[in-house]
């Protein structure tokens, strides 16, 4: 029996829940249809394809993660903001592994949907805003954003895969890693071009 009120949002949420349970790469339209108690064909009234569904899951996850990060970092700056940002990121990845992976995977997203989604834009604003608190400007800002993303994603991906078998707990390493990032951001190294420019400045 077809459930009443089937919408693109309900299909997306069902797909996201399934992704968290079995992994994003294992989600199929048939599985989502069974979860909703409908025939496969019913889904295509609301989403065009599996890739479209994956894109919608990615946008949903970006919105959810950004909201959590915004709430965690509100009113904070410096190390407190960095730690709150990182902890919110890690917690979301651990709680919603499937939809988190959607935010870290190359997916073709409908440009119209992407334009309406506040999550990705807000994520950029939050990240750059936090890093400006360390006095960084371009191109260092972009380099720092990539460093944070590499560190956070690399850590949570290894943790999820059981890659930390040493007796020292991952939490202890996480805390020290954030300490190290904070120290680096406070003492961000000058680029070779900047140093050369200063050396050549007659003033």
Distance between the termini: 79 Å
**Which oligomeric state applies?**
single chain
Tally of helical runs: 11
Question: What kind of sheet is the major sheet?
Answer: none
Question: Strand tally, please?
Answer: 0
- Helix share, percent: over 70%
Instruction: Specify the structural class.
Output: mainly alpha
Give a structural overview.
With 203 residues, the chain is mainly alpha-helical. The chain has helices at 8-22, 29-36, 40-43, 50-73, 78-95, 97-103, 111-116, 118-132, 140-160, 170-186, 192-199. The protein contains eleven helices and no strands. The longest helix has 24 residues, at 50-73. It is globular, with a radius of gyration of 20 Å.
Short description:
The protein is mostly helical and 203 residues long. It has 11 helices and no strands.
Features of this protein?
globular
Q: Helices and strands in order, then pairings?
A:
Layout lengths: L7 H15 L6 H8 L3 H4 L6 H24 L4 H18 L1 H7 L7 H6 L1 H15 L7 H21 L9 H17 L5 H8 L4
Helix pairs in contact: 1-2, 1-4, 1-6, 4-5, 4-6, 4-8, 5-6, 5-9, 5-10, 8-9, 9-10
